[in-house]
Amino acid sequence: MSELRRDNHFIPKLYLKNWAQDGKIFSYRLLVPHQKVPLWKAHPLKGIAFHPHLYTYTLGDQVTDEFERWLDSEFESPAAEAIQRVVQEQRLSRDDWRRLISFALCQDLRTPAHMRQFLQRLQRTLPQMIDQTIERCITRLTHAAVHGAHLEINPENLESSSFDDCPFRLTSTPEADGTHTFKAEAVVGRRTWLWQMRKLLTETLQEIEPKGWTVLHAPPGMTWPTSDNPLIRVGIYEDGSYKFGTGWKSDNADLLLPISPKHLLHCTVGQRPAVRGSVVDRGLAQAIRRMIVQHADQYVFSVDPADIAELRPRVVDSQRYAEELQGWKNWGREQDQVEKKFAGGS
């Protein structure tokens, strides 16, 4: 039996190694406890961009790492050769492009930054979603009663019984007066995030065509950094301003993923791509560097520290730093408790 993968890397080592020197990668942390912390620190690849139990979840009374293994087998390992072909500037087949794009969009979803955004959005929208679901059930019951139709209500059929299903449960309890009491339950946490990620990566991803993508080169004397939130979705306006968070398929949205200090995977949705290997002019390259740094969550990685600290000064806050560390320390245990409680029906 294979050992449980507890330390879940949200930025794969096979990706970060393109910025590594002698097996270590230089990182610039955006939140530090005090001013004496060095601006840059070298980390071994296995010692950065991971959190314990980020992707594990409870299945029955066991903790499983199948999601981490699924990401590896479906997105990381298949893309490894294609990434190296980009770095070595070799020919890319259609399958290579498909694997690169799948890897890139997977990187958009699997980070703690995306998880926080998703869970915050879910907290806002879940009450309305539950109300709408219950209203639809009431409408069906009312219609059946008015028209004398038989409507089978089996709570067991309504329950989520496997991880492949949404971690949402709606049950109906018949009352003595002939009415029914509906109860809606959902997991707002790790399991819902993993469910949403799998759904997007198995359904929505298939709608993304492997066309319109290219690889751009940094100009001489400049390099692309990367971060712990590396896939950038950005809308750029005529006045040069921009806004992060556009959709994968939004017209004229720019999607960017640094592949190495020299190579940048790029797509402008709906537009003809530049010739692969085109060198970006210095003004645009500096704007892209700024975007990469601004889009980072907690870490920037670079072979050239040059202006990173000027592009985004770090925050010095000992309390916030301690709270973040404690939050991740408690993460796995808290999520296990929530998932077990849901599975037990309480």
How would the blueprint of this fold be written?
Blueprint: E1 7-9, H1 13-16, E2 24-29, E3 31-32, E4 40-44, E5 50-52, E6 57-59, E7 62-64, H2 66-87, H3 94-109, H4 112-147, H5 155-158, E8 168-174, E9 180-186, H6 190-202, E10 213-217, E11 226-227, E12 232-236, E13 242-244, E14 254-258, E15 263-268, H7 282-295, E16 299-301, H8 308-311, E17 315-316, H9 318-343
Parallel strand pairs: 3-17
Antiparallel strand pairs: 1-5, 2-4, 2-16, 6-7, 8-9, 10-15, 11-16, 12-13, 12-14, 14-15
Helix pairs in contact: 2-3
Task: Report on the architecture of this protein.
The chain is of the alpha+beta class and 346 residues long. It has two domains: 7-110 and 211-335, no CATH class; 111-209, no CATH class. It contains nine helices and 17 strands. It has helices at 13-16, 66-87, 94-109, 112-147, 155-158, 190-202, 282-295, 308-311, 318-343, and strands at residues 7-9, 24-29, 31-32, 40-44, 50-52, 57-59, 62-64, 168-174, 180-186, 213-217, 226-227, 232-236, 242-244, 254-258, 263-268, 299-301, 315-316. α2 (66-87) packs across α3. Mean pLDDT is 89; it is low at 155-164.
Rounded to an integer in angstroms, the radius of gyration calculated over CA atoms is: 23 Å
Percentage of residues in strands: 15-25%
Spans with pLDDT under 50 lasting ≥5 residues? 155-164
Strand order of the largest sheet: 10-15-14-12-13
Main beta sheet: strand number and arrangement? 5 strands, antiparallel
Number of E-state strands? 17
- Structural class estimated from helices and strands: alpha+beta
Mean pLDDT over the full residue set: 89
Shape annotation: globular
Helix content: 40-55%
The structural domain count equals: 2
SSE topology string: EHEEEEEEHHHHEEHEEEEEEHEHEH
Distance from first to last alpha carbon: 32 Å
Total number of helices: 9
